Amino acid sequence: MGVLQRFERRLEGMVGFAFARIFKGKVHPAEIAKALQREADEQRSVLGEGRVLAPNVYDVRLGRTDYDNLAEWSDQLAAQLADMVSEHIDDEGWQVFGEVQVRLERDDELPTGVFEVSSHVADPARPGTRGDAPSAKPSPPPPPLPTPMTGSGAVPPLPPLRGRIPTDTGKQHPSVVGRAGSRPGVTHVLVVDGPGTRHELTTGRNVIGRGTEADIRLPDTGVSRKHVDVVLDNGTAFAEDLGSTNGTLVNGRKITRQALADGDVIRIGHSVLVYRQDGT
After folding, report:
1. CB crowding 83-95: b at 16 or more within 10 Å, else e
2. Which of 32, 143, 262, 276 is deepest in the core (most CB within 10 A)?
Protein backbone atom coordinates (compact mmCIF):
# COMPACT_ATOMS: atom_id res chain seq x y z
CA MET A 1 0.00 0.00 0.00
CA GLY A 2 1.42 3.38 -1.03
CA VAL A 3 1.82 6.54 1.01
CA LEU A 4 -1.33 8.18 -0.39
CA GLN A 5 -3.44 5.07 0.10
CA ARG A 6 -2.36 4.85 3.75
CA PHE A 7 -3.26 8.50 4.21
CA GLU A 8 -6.72 7.95 2.74
CA ARG A 9 -7.32 5.02 5.11
CA ARG A 10 -6.48 7.24 8.07
CA LEU A 11 -8.70 9.96 6.66
CA GLU A 12 -11.63 7.55 6.50
CA GLY A 13 -11.11 6.85 10.19
CA MET A 14 -11.27 10.59 10.94
CA VAL A 15 -14.39 11.57 9.00
CA GLY A 16 -16.20 8.26 8.60
CA PHE A 17 -18.32 7.77 5.50
CA ALA A 18 -19.47 11.36 5.05
CA PHE A 19 -17.03 12.18 2.23
CA ALA A 20 -19.64 13.11 -0.36
CA ARG A 21 -21.47 15.46 1.99
CA ILE A 22 -18.43 17.03 3.63
CA PHE A 23 -16.25 17.69 0.59
CA LYS A 24 -18.80 18.20 -2.18
CA GLY A 25 -17.49 21.11 -4.26
CA LYS A 26 -14.81 21.91 -1.68
CA VAL A 27 -11.12 21.14 -1.30
CA HIS A 28 -10.65 17.43 -0.65
CA PRO A 29 -7.86 16.36 1.75
CA ALA A 30 -6.61 13.89 -0.86
CA GLU A 31 -5.97 16.87 -3.17
CA ILE A 32 -3.89 18.52 -0.45
CA ALA A 33 -1.96 15.31 0.17
CA LYS A 34 -1.06 14.92 -3.49
CA ALA A 35 -0.09 18.60 -3.77
CA LEU A 36 2.18 18.31 -0.71
CA GLN A 37 3.87 15.27 -2.19
CA ARG A 38 4.43 17.18 -5.43
CA GLU A 39 5.76 20.19 -3.49
CA ALA A 40 8.35 18.01 -1.77
CA ASP A 41 9.36 16.55 -5.14
CA GLU A 42 9.67 19.92 -6.85
CA GLN A 43 11.38 21.84 -4.03
CA ARG A 44 14.01 19.28 -3.04
CA SER A 45 17.64 20.30 -3.36
CA VAL A 46 20.46 18.01 -4.41
CA LEU A 47 23.58 18.47 -2.31
CA GLY A 48 26.95 16.77 -2.54
CA GLU A 49 27.68 13.07 -2.09
CA GLY A 50 24.23 11.99 -3.21
CA ARG A 51 22.39 13.88 -0.49
CA VAL A 52 18.94 15.28 -1.21
CA LEU A 53 17.35 17.84 1.12
CA ALA A 54 13.56 18.30 1.19
CA PRO A 55 11.63 21.15 2.85
CA ASN A 56 10.39 20.42 6.35
CA VAL A 57 7.73 23.15 6.71
CA TYR A 58 4.68 23.18 4.42
CA ASP A 59 2.01 25.89 4.43
CA VAL A 60 -1.43 25.14 2.97
CA ARG A 61 -3.59 28.20 2.33
CA LEU A 62 -7.33 27.69 2.05
CA GLY A 63 -10.24 29.99 1.34
CA ARG A 64 -12.66 30.82 4.14
CA THR A 65 -15.25 28.17 3.25
CA ASP A 66 -12.70 25.36 2.82
CA TYR A 67 -10.83 26.33 5.97
CA ASP A 68 -14.04 26.35 8.02
CA ASN A 69 -15.11 23.06 6.45
CA LEU A 70 -11.93 21.37 7.71
CA ALA A 71 -11.81 23.17 11.06
CA GLU A 72 -13.26 20.25 13.01
CA TRP A 73 -10.35 18.02 12.00
CA SER A 74 -7.68 20.65 11.33
CA ASP A 75 -5.21 19.49 13.99
CA GLN A 76 -5.62 15.81 13.15
CA LEU A 77 -5.51 16.51 9.43
CA ALA A 78 -2.33 18.59 9.69
CA ALA A 79 -0.68 15.81 11.72
CA GLN A 80 -1.76 13.12 9.26
CA LEU A 81 -0.56 15.19 6.30
CA ALA A 82 2.80 15.73 8.00
CA ASP A 83 3.12 11.98 8.59
CA MET A 84 2.28 11.35 4.93
CA VAL A 85 4.96 13.79 3.73
CA SER A 86 7.50 12.28 6.15
CA GLU A 87 6.77 8.80 4.84
CA HIS A 88 7.15 9.99 1.25
CA ILE A 89 10.48 11.66 2.02
CA ASP A 90 11.70 8.58 3.87
CA ASP A 91 10.62 6.29 1.03
CA GLU A 92 12.65 8.41 -1.39
CA GLY A 93 15.70 8.36 0.88
CA TRP A 94 15.83 12.14 1.23
CA GLN A 95 16.70 14.15 4.34
CA VAL A 96 15.06 16.97 6.30
CA PHE A 97 15.95 19.16 9.27
CA GLY A 98 13.92 18.07 12.29
CA GLU A 99 10.28 17.06 12.02
CA VAL A 100 8.04 17.78 9.05
CA GLN A 101 5.31 20.32 9.81
CA VAL A 102 2.13 21.04 7.84
CA ARG A 103 0.26 24.23 8.69
CA LEU A 104 -3.27 24.99 7.50
CA GLU A 105 -3.91 28.71 7.06
CA ARG A 106 -6.90 30.78 5.97
CA ASP A 107 -6.63 33.12 2.99
CA ASP A 108 -9.86 35.02 2.43
CA GLU A 109 -8.78 35.95 -1.11
CA LEU A 110 -8.92 32.34 -2.30
CA PRO A 111 -12.24 31.11 -3.71
CA THR A 112 -13.90 27.91 -2.55
CA GLY A 113 -12.27 24.81 -4.00
CA VAL A 114 -8.88 26.45 -4.60
CA PHE A 115 -5.84 26.16 -2.34
CA GLU A 116 -2.14 27.04 -2.47
CA VAL A 117 0.89 25.20 -1.10
CA SER A 118 4.35 26.58 -0.32
CA SER A 119 7.30 25.20 1.62
CA HIS A 120 10.68 26.10 3.04
CA VAL A 121 13.58 24.63 4.99
CA ALA A 122 13.61 25.63 8.66
CA ASP A 123 16.56 24.91 10.93
CA PRO A 124 15.28 23.47 14.28
CA ALA A 125 18.43 24.80 15.96
CA ARG A 126 17.14 28.31 15.27
CA PRO A 127 13.45 28.28 16.26
CA GLY A 128 11.33 31.02 14.80
CA THR A 129 13.49 31.48 11.72
CA ARG A 130 12.74 30.52 8.15
CA GLY A 131 15.17 28.99 5.71
CA ASP A 132 14.90 32.17 3.63
CA ALA A 133 15.26 34.66 6.46
CA PRO A 134 18.57 36.07 7.76
CA SER A 135 19.59 34.80 11.17
CA ALA A 136 20.17 37.07 14.15
CA LYS A 137 23.18 34.96 15.11
CA PRO A 138 26.03 34.03 12.77
CA SER A 139 25.62 30.61 11.21
CA PRO A 140 28.29 27.95 11.76
CA PRO A 141 30.88 27.73 9.00
CA PRO A 142 29.55 25.70 6.07
CA PRO A 143 31.20 22.36 5.27
CA PRO A 144 33.08 21.84 2.02
CA LEU A 145 29.95 20.23 0.52
CA PRO A 146 27.75 22.54 -1.54
CA THR A 147 24.74 23.78 0.38
CA PRO A 148 21.48 24.99 -1.13
CA MET A 149 20.65 28.66 -0.85
CA THR A 150 17.14 29.94 -0.28
CA GLY A 151 16.87 33.69 -0.58
CA SER A 152 19.60 35.40 1.40
CA GLY A 153 20.30 32.73 4.03
CA ALA A 154 22.32 29.54 3.74
CA VAL A 155 20.87 26.23 4.85
CA PRO A 156 23.10 24.79 7.62
CA PRO A 157 24.97 21.52 6.99
CA LEU A 158 23.06 18.27 7.04
CA PRO A 159 23.61 15.75 9.82
CA PRO A 160 25.65 12.63 8.99
CA LEU A 161 23.93 10.23 6.63
CA ARG A 162 22.04 7.37 8.22
CA GLY A 163 20.40 4.40 6.57
CA ARG A 164 20.29 3.95 2.84
CA ILE A 165 21.89 6.32 0.37
CA PRO A 166 19.35 8.03 -1.88
CA THR A 167 19.70 7.23 -5.55
CA ASP A 168 17.89 10.39 -6.68
CA THR A 169 19.87 12.36 -9.23
CA GLY A 170 17.85 15.52 -8.83
CA LYS A 171 16.45 15.30 -12.34
CA GLN A 172 12.80 16.14 -11.89
CA HIS A 173 9.99 14.58 -13.92
CA PRO A 174 6.91 15.33 -11.79
CA SER A 175 4.52 14.42 -14.60
CA VAL A 176 5.68 10.81 -14.69
CA VAL A 177 5.85 10.00 -10.97
CA GLY A 178 3.98 6.76 -10.39
CA ARG A 179 3.38 6.21 -14.11
CA ALA A 180 2.62 2.62 -15.01
CA GLY A 181 4.07 2.83 -18.50
CA SER A 182 3.45 -0.29 -20.52
CA ARG A 183 3.89 -2.74 -17.64
CA PRO A 184 1.60 -5.76 -17.97
CA GLY A 185 -1.09 -6.47 -15.42
CA VAL A 186 -1.84 -2.82 -14.65
CA THR A 187 -5.48 -1.72 -14.58
CA HIS A 188 -6.26 1.98 -14.85
CA VAL A 189 -9.29 2.98 -12.78
CA LEU A 190 -11.22 6.11 -11.83
CA VAL A 191 -12.90 5.95 -8.42
CA VAL A 192 -15.78 8.35 -7.78
CA ASP A 193 -15.45 9.70 -4.25
CA GLY A 194 -18.55 9.29 -2.10
CA PRO A 195 -20.25 6.27 -3.66
CA GLY A 196 -16.87 4.66 -4.38
CA THR A 197 -17.94 3.65 -7.89
CA ARG A 198 -15.02 2.27 -9.91
CA HIS A 199 -14.71 2.83 -13.65
CA GLU A 200 -12.03 0.87 -15.48
CA LEU A 201 -10.44 2.91 -18.26
CA THR A 202 -10.11 1.47 -21.75
CA THR A 203 -7.39 2.26 -24.26
CA GLY A 204 -8.20 5.47 -26.08
CA ARG A 205 -10.83 8.00 -25.03
CA ASN A 206 -12.83 7.87 -21.79
CA VAL A 207 -15.15 10.88 -21.81
CA ILE A 208 -16.56 11.98 -18.45
CA GLY A 209 -19.62 14.19 -18.33
CA ARG A 210 -23.29 14.65 -17.57
CA GLY A 211 -24.60 13.90 -21.05
CA THR A 212 -25.84 10.61 -22.44
CA GLU A 213 -22.88 10.38 -24.82
CA ALA A 214 -20.32 10.35 -21.99
CA ASP A 215 -18.54 7.08 -21.24
CA ILE A 216 -18.62 7.86 -17.51
CA ARG A 217 -21.80 9.73 -16.57
CA LEU A 218 -22.00 11.89 -13.45
CA PRO A 219 -25.36 13.23 -12.21
CA ASP A 220 -23.80 16.58 -11.30
CA THR A 221 -25.23 19.89 -12.52
CA GLY A 222 -21.78 21.46 -12.24
CA VAL A 223 -20.41 19.01 -14.82
CA SER A 224 -20.68 19.74 -18.54
CA ARG A 225 -22.26 17.20 -20.89
CA LYS A 226 -18.76 16.35 -22.16
CA HIS A 227 -16.49 17.73 -19.47
CA VAL A 228 -13.13 15.95 -19.48
CA ASP A 229 -11.54 13.15 -21.49
CA VAL A 230 -9.14 10.72 -19.82
CA VAL A 231 -7.12 9.29 -22.68
CA LEU A 232 -5.25 6.04 -22.07
CA ASP A 233 -2.36 5.83 -24.53
CA ASN A 234 0.42 3.23 -24.34
CA GLY A 235 -0.11 2.70 -20.62
CA THR A 236 -0.22 6.41 -19.71
CA ALA A 237 -3.39 8.30 -18.81
CA PHE A 238 -3.88 11.95 -19.76
CA ALA A 239 -6.68 14.19 -18.50
CA GLU A 240 -7.83 16.70 -21.13
CA ASP A 241 -10.49 19.32 -20.46
CA LEU A 242 -13.07 19.45 -23.26
CA GLY A 243 -13.81 23.16 -23.04
CA SER A 244 -16.03 22.67 -20.00
CA THR A 245 -17.89 25.55 -18.39
CA ASN A 246 -16.42 25.16 -14.91
CA GLY A 247 -13.00 23.74 -15.80
CA THR A 248 -11.08 20.69 -14.61
CA LEU A 249 -8.78 20.60 -11.57
CA VAL A 250 -6.07 18.01 -11.00
CA ASN A 251 -4.66 18.10 -7.47
CA GLY A 252 -6.11 21.59 -7.02
CA ARG A 253 -4.65 23.05 -10.22
CA LYS A 254 -6.70 23.97 -13.26
CA ILE A 255 -5.51 22.04 -16.30
CA THR A 256 -5.96 21.88 -20.04
CA ARG A 257 -4.10 18.60 -20.55
CA GLN A 258 -1.99 16.74 -18.02
CA ALA A 259 -0.48 13.29 -17.57
CA LEU A 260 -1.91 11.48 -14.56
CA ALA A 261 -0.02 9.66 -11.82
CA ASP A 262 -1.40 7.09 -9.41
CA GLY A 263 -3.41 8.85 -6.71
CA ASP A 264 -4.08 12.05 -8.65
CA VAL A 265 -7.37 13.73 -7.73
CA ILE A 266 -9.59 15.08 -10.50
CA ARG A 267 -12.33 17.54 -9.55
CA ILE A 268 -15.07 18.58 -11.95
CA GLY A 269 -18.16 20.44 -10.80
CA HIS A 270 -19.04 19.04 -7.37
CA SER A 271 -17.56 15.62 -8.15
CA VAL A 272 -14.20 14.18 -7.12
CA LEU A 273 -12.55 11.25 -8.90
CA VAL A 274 -9.31 9.54 -7.91
CA TYR A 275 -7.11 7.97 -10.58
CA ARG A 276 -5.71 4.59 -9.58
CA GLN A 277 -3.29 2.11 -11.12
CA ASP A 278 -4.21 -1.30 -9.75
CA GLY A 279 -1.53 -3.95 -9.90
CA THR A 280 1.42 -1.57 -9.58
Report:
1. bbbbbbbeebbbb
2. 32
Q: At what angle do helices 29-43 and 74-92 cross, to 10 degrees?
A: 40
**CATH top class, domain 187-278:** mainly beta
| Distances, alpha carbon 267 to alpha carbons 15, 31, 113, 152, 252, in Å | 20, 9, 9, 38, 8
3-class SS of residue 275: strand
Q: How far apart are CA 31 and CA 36, in angstroms?
A: 9
Query: Hey, which residues does 60 pair with through a beta bridge?
Result: 104, 117
User: pLDDT tens digits, residue range 168-211?
Assistant: 333 333 322 223 333 456 889 998 887 778 899 999 999 999 99
CA distances from 72 to 14, 22, 29, 171 (A): 10, 11, 13, 39
CATH classification code of 3-120: 3.30.2320.60
| DSSP letters spanning 206-234 | -EEESSTT-SEE---TTS-TT-EEEEEET
pLDDT band with cut points at 50, 70 and 90 for residue 238: very high
- For 148-159, write each residue's pLDDT tens digit: 434 434 444 444
pLDDT digits (tens, 9 = 90+) for 63-80: 898 899 888 888 888 998
Q: Report domain extents, the chain.
A: 3-120, 187-278
- Phi-psi map region of 95: left, alpha, beta (phi>0 left; psi -120 to 50 alpha): beta
Q: Tell me: the pLDDT tens digits for 112-153?
A: 877 888 888 886 655 444 444 433 344 444 444 334 434 434
